[in-house]
Write a structure and sequence with these properties.
Number of domains: 3
Strand order of the largest sheet: 4-3-2-9
Helix content: 40-55%
CATH class of the largest domain: Mainly Alpha
Number of strands: 10
Distance between the termini: 33 Å
Strand content: 5-15%
Largest sheet: 4 strands, mixed
CATH architecture of the largest domain: Alpha Horseshoe
CATH topology of the largest domain: Serine Threonine Protein Phosphatase 5, Tetratricopeptide repeat
Radius of gyration: 34 Å
Shape: elongated
Amino acid sequence: MKKYLLAFVLLLLMTVAFAQTKPKSKEKPPTQKEMNDMMKEMQKAMDEMSPEDKKMMDSMGIKMPSTKTIPKLTDKQLADAWEDENRIVPKRDAVRIAAIPKAVTDSKMAAYIAAIQNKLASTFKPEVITMGNKVYDYVKSNSKSTGQAGNMAMGLWMAGKPEIALYVLGKLCAADAGNTDNLSNYSAMLSMQGAQHLAIPILNNLNAKYPKNSTLLNNLGQAWFGLGEIGKAEKYIDSAIHIYAYHPQANLTKSLIEESKGNKQGAIDAAKRSIAKAYSMDKENRLNKLGYKLQTKDVAWDKPMPQDALGLEKFKWPDYPMNVEESEVLEVEWDAFKKKCQEDFDELRMQEKTLEKQVEEANNVRTKQLLQAGQRGIMVYPFPPLAYKAMAKLGYLVVDKDGHIAFSHQKKAQAVANANIEIAKFEDILSNQIKVLDKQYEDDFGEGKPNPFDAACADYNKASNSFLSSSNTLLRDAFVDFLGFMRRKINNEMYYYQYTMWPENFELAKVQAKMSWLSLLVNQNPRFKDKNGWCQDKIDSAEGKPFKLSKFDDIACQYKATMDLKIIKFTNNCSRMTSEFDFMFLNYVRKDDFERAEGDTYIGSTLKVSVEAGKDQKAGPLKVEAKIGGGVELEFGRTGLEDVALIGEAKVGAGTGIFDEDEETDSPGIGIAGKDAFPTTVEAGIEGRISLISGHGEMGGSGILKGMKITEW
């Protein structure tokens, strides 16, 4: 708890420093006196809060903090905390390096892990051990092999319970030290929870068996990095990157190492490789810190992009009349078309009102959850899990930075306006032609006169036909171009919103997009002219063919990733990411034991899962990197799961295999529906292979394993 309070103090300090108007930010740690002054200011602000505001916060379940709970820290403690907060790479930990156990052979591996487990039993809270033992019994009873049981334990990791996951997986490894998948994942968990020195002997053992494996090389590099042995860490990290150029975790740590050397460009280049196929906010923030603005081409996007998600291209409207015969029929059809559009629009308007209420209710719930999470020290982003990646990659679809969208819209809308202006000139020409014809025929009709009905009909209709042909051709072409642009614009927006909006908001956006499209359609204003009165075959009441308006397509997410690890089932579907606990499992343990608690956050890791297990169950993580039929790669950041990538057939050294880079832009690219070379649906389960790829740093708040030592086993 003290660690979290200290972090809060530092956050407060940085916030205050940032808010100051001085040209230079504070570059030295605060003194105890400065901290006390800031605490007084903060307490004063809380004391001055109105009763109404306090009542509102209470109603949302938000308790006001108190400066009395913040520990009194000495100047040295503040200085040390400030130094740690601003350190680029860890300080060399000679004590833990000296405590690294000697080499562990296969015959000693089970005993070594059992010794670690005994230490965990005395280090973790009693409730963690109690729950861990219950879960261990459950996974053993509900799995067919140690590999399946290990995958179920990985489900606990995904659920945000790293300590229980480590404990359960350790018990499995102690019982069967021959399963190299479990050993690899166990060592990664140890490393990320502060026990890098205990993970290294396991990793060395595996690395000797499976050389040139990027997962093991990365995990070794991360372990040495966590110990502050930067030179040795870099060798392993470089080896991992050599095998897999876009390695998400190795490149991120490489970026820190390069920055610590003063090589800013090298740090940027490594961070760009890290984020290319596995996005996280931490990585984008790191690039921002280094002075680089993430560009569209820097991020891969493996979600297929439908050409016409709402089915707008299916919508047809009556033809534009080119002569008076067509005009009399098509005017009736246009009236029916616009009437049907208005009916559908009115129906959508009713849906819009209902959805607006649902959005308001959902937004209120999310706002409350955000505030409560913030008070508990849990970082939660206000947008869906893939939103930030979508903003980075797809922002150009809707964000008009250089004004090209507005320019195109204005240009095409102006073409429609210009067409109407030009048609006004055609109206004047027609009017003058009619005046000439009226004068020409004014004495030709009546009793005893020639009454040239056919000639007059033909002459008048010829003038009207010329007007209709010229006007409606011009108007039709302008509208077709404008509607084509608007169709693409609406489709782009819907594709973008599918990932950046919460489901309720997206449903509302879909309805509003449909309303917008119908409004555009009815704004078409073709010109109509009846046959002249001298025409004896003039149709008194033309009948157009019945008009049936097309139906909108419902935008369905084009991809789905499901991973059922029995304890937990994870599903990712565009803007919705859900985790479901097994019903029977919840009957076995209390659900609130698995609710996310303070400190249950991730700092950089990647989970790679293959759909099917390899033939050799003990072949280790190499099988995951070798040829697989399909799978999913999960990127974890400070808020938990931040990115999901579907992976097709991959080969050693080829990375995830989701996309080839675009030759012209060097961009990982965006998949187009029908042209994508990756699966759109992946279902993985406990039959698959899971490889945990560790990142730098420790699991948030769980560095209690740092001081653990193993001397005998």
